C-alpha cells in the first residue's frame, strides 16, 4: 500500500505542446492517501485513463513526477512499481485454466504453493467462479473472462495499489453490483490503495471513499459523494453528478439575493457582487412547484419513475428540472418554482463562490 503523490504532473501526446490546450492532462498537484479508495470520474476524453496509465508506468508524463510513499517512481517500469492493474477489456491466458490464471501472479513471485491454493480458492469464490476453477479460459464468455482478470488483479495482498480502468464494462448489471460490493469488502479487509476509473457516477459513488471528478484534463473536485452532491465545486460536477443534474441559471448576485431577469431568488448566505459570468446552481431535489411564488415556468412533461416524479419545466430558454414526491398532485395552476435558499450555490466563471466572510476551499472563488 502506498501514498501516491502527483507533483506538478502534466501530459501532452504532442511532441512540442505550445499551450495548455495541447495537454490531455493539465497540471496536477495532489496527495492521495495510503489505503483509501478513489474513483476517477468524468466523461470520455477527460484524462482519466491517461492519469491512470501514468501512475501505473505505462505512460511517461511530459512533465512532473509520480511518488509512492515519497519515492520518485516516474522513471520506474511498471514491474518495479508493485501495482496490479485491471483493464477495460479482459486479459486472460486462454490455454490456462481459471485456477492457473488466478495463480499466475503469485507463482511468478515464488509464493508458497499452500498460500497460492488458499488465495485462489478465496478469490474464486469472491468472483463467483469457484465451480469453474478447473475449466480452460478459452470458450468462456467475455464477462467471465473479465471476472478472471479482476480476480488476478486482486489475488496479491502485497501491492502498493490496485488500479481499475473501467473494469465492469462487459459485466452484466447484476454481477456489476456483486463485484462492486466485493471490491469494497476487499478494500475494507486489506486496506489497499485503490484507484477506479469510470464514467458511471453510480459506480464511482458506491465504490469510493473519495471521488476525483475530472473535466477537460483537470481535477475539478475531490470529495465524498455527499460533498459532490451538496457543494459541487464546479458547474460540471453539478451537471455530471445527480440524475437529473443540477439546474444552472445565469443571474446577478448581490448580498443574499440573486436576480434572474428581474425575478428575485433568496440565497441562504450573503455574497459580494460579481462581474462576468455569474450563475446560481440548485439541485432538482431542492426545487418546489408553487401556484403563486417564485420563477414562472412552463411544465413540458412529468416523468413518473416510481420513487418520485421528475418534472421537466422551462423558464424562458432555460430548462429546470424539479423532483416531486410520488404522491404529490401537480395541478395545471402550478406555474412557478421556488428554491430552498440554503441549497442554492453561486458560481463565478463555473467555480463555486464562498459566501462573504467564509473561507474558500481549493477550487472555490472566495
Describe the 3D structure.
- Keywords: ATP-binding, Cell membrane, Membrane, Nucleotide-binding, Transport.
- With 366 residues, the protein is an alpha+beta fold.
- Helix content is 23%, strand content 34%.
- The protein has helices at 48-56, 98-107, 113-126, 142-154, 173-190, 201-207, 225-230, 235-240, and strands spanning 4-11, 25-32, 37-41, 63-68, 71-72, 83-86, 161-165, 193-198, 210-215, 218-223, 247-250, 252-260, 263-271, 278-282, 287-290, 295-296, 298-304, 308-315, 318-325, 336-339, 344-348, 351-352.
- The chain has a 6-stranded mixed β-sheet, sandwiched between helices. A 4-stranded antiparallel β-sheet has the order 2-1-4-5, covered by helices on one side.
- A hairpin with a 2-residue loop joins strand 12 and strand 13 (263-271).
- Helix 2 (98-107) crosses helix 3 (113-126) and helix 2 packs parallel to helix 4.
- The mean pLDDT is 90.
Amino acid at each position: 500500500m502506498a501514498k501516491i503523490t502527483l507533483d506538478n504532473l502534466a501530459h501532452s501526446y504532442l511532441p512540442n505542446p505550445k499551450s495548455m490546450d495541447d495537454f490531455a492532462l493539465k497540471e496536477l498537484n495532489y496527495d492521495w492517501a495510503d489505503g483509501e479508495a478513489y474513483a476517477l470520474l468524468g466523461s470520455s476524453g477527460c484524462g482519466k485513463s491517461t492519469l491512470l496509465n501514468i501512475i501505473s508506468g505505462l505512460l511517461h508524463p511530459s512533465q512532473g513526477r509520480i511518488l509512492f510513499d515519497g519515492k520518485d517512481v516516474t522513471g520506474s517500469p511498471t514491474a518495479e512499481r508493485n501495482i496490479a492493474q485491471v483493464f477495460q477489456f479482459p486479459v486472460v491466458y486462454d490455454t490456462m485454466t481459471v485456477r492457473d490464471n488466478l495463480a499466475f501472479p503469485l507463482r511468478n513471485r515464488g509464493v508458497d504453493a499452500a498460500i497460492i491454493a488458499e488465495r485462489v480458492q478465496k478469490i474464486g469464490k469472491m468472483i463467483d467462479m469457484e465451480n469453474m476453477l478447473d475449466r480452460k479460459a478459452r470458450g468462456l464468455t467475455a464477462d467471465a473472462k473479465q471476472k478472471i482478470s479482476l480476480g488476478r488483479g486482486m489475488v496479491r495482498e502485497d501491492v502498493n495499489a490496485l488500479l481499475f480502468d473501467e473494469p465492469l464494462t462487459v459485466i452484466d448489471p447484476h454481477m456489476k453490483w456483486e463485484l462492486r460490493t466485493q471490491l469494497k469488502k476487499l478494500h475494507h479487509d486489506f486496506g489497499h490503495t485503490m484507484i477506479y476509473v469510470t464514467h458511471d457516477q453510480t459506480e464511482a459513488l458506491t465504490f469510493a471513499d473519495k471521488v476525483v471528478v475530472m473535466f477537460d484534463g483537470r481535477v475539478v473536485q475531490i470529495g465524498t459523494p455527499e460533498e459532490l452532491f451538496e457543494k459541487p465545486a464546479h458547474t460540471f460536477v453539478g451537471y455530471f453528478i445527480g440524475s437529473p443534474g443540477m439546474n444552472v441559471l445565469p443571474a446577478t448576485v448581490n448580498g443574499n439575493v440573486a436576480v434572474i431577469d428581474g425575478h428575485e431568488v433568496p440565497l441562504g448566505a450573503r455574497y459580494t457582487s460579481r462581474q462576468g459570468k455569474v450563475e446560481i446552481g440548485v439541485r432538482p431535489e431542492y426545487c418546489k412547484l408553487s401556484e403563486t411564488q417564485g420563477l414562472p415556468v412552463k411544465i413540458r412533461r412529468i416523468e413518473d419513475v416510481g420513487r418520485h416524479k421528475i418534472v421537466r419545466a422551462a423558464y424562458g430558454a432555460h430548462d429546470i428540472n424539479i423532483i416531486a414526491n410520488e404522491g404529490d398532485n401537480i395541478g395545471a395552476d402550478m406555474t412557478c418554482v421556488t428554491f430552498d435558499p440554503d441549497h442554492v450555490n453561486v458560481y463565478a466563471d463555473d467555480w463555486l463562490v464562498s459566501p462573504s466572510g467564509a473561507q474558500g476551499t481549493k477550487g472555490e472563488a472566495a
